[in-house]
Structure formats: C-alpha cells, structure tokens
Specification:
By secondary structure, the chain is mainly alpha-helical. The chain has two domains: about 60 residues; about 190 residues, f41 fragment of flagellin, N-terminal domain. A two-stranded antiparallel ribbon has the order 1-2. It has a two-stranded antiparallel sheet with strand order 3-4. Helix 2 packs antiparallel against helix 3 and helix 3 runs antiparallel to helix 4.
C-alpha cells in the first residue's frame, strides 16, 4: 500500500473526465439539434454541409427571383386583358360607324370613344413593374438556378406599329375611315392574341422552374439533414449512458481517494 501515488484515483479521474466530455457533447448535440457541434465531429461532413447550406440559400434566392418574374408576368397579362377589352370595343365601334343610318354627328360620337380607348391602350404600353417596363422591346433574363444561369423570357411589346396603327391616326367620322380602322384593329387583336399566348408560355415555364427548384431544395435539405441533424432517440440514449458513467465515476473517485487513509490504521 502506497500513499504518494494513488493509481486507482488517477484511473478513475481519467474515466470521469472522458465520461464528462462525452456527456457535455451529448448535451450540446441535444440542445442544438446538430451532430456537428465542432469540426472534429466530422471534418469532411462539415465541409459538405457548408456547401449544401450555401447552395440551399442560393436556391432560395433564385426562387424569390422567379416568384417576382411570375408576378411580373401576371401583371403583364392583367394589362393585356384590359387592352383586349378596349380593342374589342374599338372594333365594335368601327363596325357601328359604318352603319348607313348613322349621321355624321353619330359617327363623331363613335370616333370620340374610339380615340379615348386608343389612348388607353397607348397608356398601357408605358406601364411598369417596380420601375421595370412591362412592355419593353427586349427579352428579360430570369435567374433559373443556384448557379445564376438565366433564361430569356420572351418580350411583349405594345409599342409596335401593329398597335399604334390601330390606336392613332384613325377617324371614324370620315368616309372610309371606319373601314380602315376596323382592318387595323383586327390586326392589333390578332397580335394581342399572340402576345397573350407568349405571356402564357412564359408563365408556364416560370412555374415549372419554380417547382423544379422546390424539388431540388427538398432533396438537398434531406441530404444535409443526414449529415448534421442529430438523431434525438439515439443521442438521448447516449446521454443517459454518459450521465450514469459520470455519476458512477464520481462515486468511485470518492472511494479511491479514501483508500490511502487505510495506511493510518497500519501506523496506529
């Protein structure tokens, strides 16, 4: 029996330290919900998880961009619907102005409404969305993915001569004016039908891309979860085990520290 060196206490203290360290790690994992409380937990996993987190954040940004583009396109279509209503009425006025039973005064009233509606269509062509023209003469590049690749969303331009010929320079009150106006309005309606089709195609593509990003985000999030999210059931079991070991080692260290006192009995 020795007094200066208590080997049992040293071994027990070492076991207590190891159990306490594991208990602290279990507590950190359970409280944070993450297995990766320190880079040493999984050096490679930390790197992969960081890249996945960054990609998920970029996907969120791309999804926001697409959502704004969808709103932009829906706003376009809303104005085009109003332009369609105006052009439909203008074509109706052009036909009514060709009624032989109408006086010049009557035709003048038709022309007044026609000109007002034409100005309304012209005004629509100047509208914007958050400061960006809705009906510009150039395609819009929309972000599609986390790498910021873009897709050229086809333009819709209401300032073309097809529309301006129908909305300006016509007079339903003059001889032949209504017939000429009708021809031009019909051409504008045909163009408008194509433009609304373009908007519909753009909207379909944007919605499909948005759905695609949603699927990609879900899969990346699932993969990231397998790397860093803690399994609460497993970690709770580990916590209980380490907690018992800490309590047991503490009790045994107390006993080990009392062993040298037995030497006093020999001396007595």
């Amino acid at each position: 029996m020795v007094i200066n060196t208590n080997t049992s206490a040293q071994f027990t203290a070492q076991a207590l330290g190891e159990a306490s360290s594991k208990l602290a790690k279990s507590l950190a994992r359970l409280s944070s919900g993450s297995k990766l409380t320190s880079p040493e937990d999984d050096a490679a996993g930390v790197g992969v998880s960081m890249r996945l987190d960054a990609q998920i954040h970029r996907i969120n940004a791309a999804t926001n961009n697409i959502g704004n583009a969808v709103s932009y396109t829906q706003t376009q279509d809303g104005f085009l619907q109003k332009a369609q209503t105006a052009l439909d009425r203008m074509s109706e006025l052009a036909v009514m102005a060709q009624d032989v039973t109408k006086t010049t005064a009557d035709k003048g009233l038709y022309d007044k409404e026609y000109q007002t509606l034409g100005q309304y269509v012209d005004d629509i062509s100047t509208k914007d969305f958050n400061g960006v023209s809705l009906f510009a003469s150039a395609d819009k590049n929309v972000t599609l993915d986390s790498d910021a690749k873009t897709w050229a969303m086809t333009k819709v331009d209401l300032s073309t001569t097809t529309y301006s010929d129908a909305t300006r320079g016509n007079d339903l009150a003059v001889t032949g004016g209504a017939a000429t106006a009708l021809t031009k309005v019909k051409a504008a309606i045909d163009q408008l039908s194509q433009d609304r089709g373009t908007v519909g195609a753009n909207l379909a593509r944007l919605n499909m891309t948005n759905d695609q990003l949603g699927v990609q985000k879900t899969n990346l999030t699932t993969a990231n979860s397998r790397i860093k999210d803690v399994d609460v059931a497993t970690e709770s079991t580990e916590y209980a085990r380490n907690n018992i070991l800490v309590q047991s080692a503490t009790a045994m260290l107390t006993q080990a520290n009392q062993q040298p006192q037995a030497a006093l009995r020999l001396l007595g």
